[in-house]
Hints:
A: 115 residues, mainly beta, 0% helix, B: mainly beta, five-stranded antiparallel sheet
Amino acid sequence: GAVVSQHPSWVICKSGTSVKIECRSLDFQATTMFWYRQFPKQSLMLMATSNEGSKATYEQGVEKDKFLINHASLTLSTLTVTSAHPEDSSFYICSVGGQWFQGYTFGSGTRLTVV
Amino acid sequence: QQQVKQSPQSLIVQKGGISIINCAYENTAFDYFPWYQQFPGKGPALLIAIRPDVSEKKEGRFTISFNKSAKQFSLHIMDSQPGDSATYFCAASMSTRQFYFGTGTSLTVIP
C-alpha cells in the first residue's frame, strides 16, 4: 500500500482561528485522497474526497466553506478547518490508495483540540 | 443510514482464545470488504481484506469468512494475544472507491 504522512499529529488552537492539516503520499501519485473525521470511540465518517486539480467532493452535511480542501499536487492534499470552534475538536484522518482493491492506507491522524 | 452494521461493540477474550467480529451490509454493489485495526491515537491499518468471489481468506491468525447470500462477513482472530487489543473496523467499498465503515469493535485480550 501507499505510504502516507499526515501532519501535524496534534494541534491546539483558539476558537475562531484556522488550522491546516497536511496529508502527503510519499511513494504514490494520488489523484484522489479522502478525509475522515472520527469522534472518540466512534467510527470514521467520510467528510470529503479530494481530487487533484479539481474541487473536492463533500459528503452530505459537511460544510465545504468550513472545511477547505486543496489537492494541488499528486502528493499533497490539505484540509483547512476555518474559524474553528470547540465542536470541531476531533480526530481527522486522511487516506490514500492505489487500485481500489488494494485497500487504502490511512495517515496517522491529527488530533485537533479547539479551546 | 449505516451502510455497514458491526457487532459486538466491545469484546473481551482470554489470551489464546478466538475473537469473532461480525459485519453485515445491504448494498449488493459492494465488492471489496477490508478489516482495519486501530490503536488509540493512530490511524487505522489495513489488516486483511476479501472480495465477494471468495468465501474465506486467511492470513496468519486472521481469517475473514464471507457469506454472500447472507450479506455478512466476519473476522476471526485465532490464538488472540494481548497485543491484539485494539479497535477493529470492518468496511465495504464499491469500485467507486468510497469506503463505508462499521461502527467499530473494541477488543480486549486479557492475559
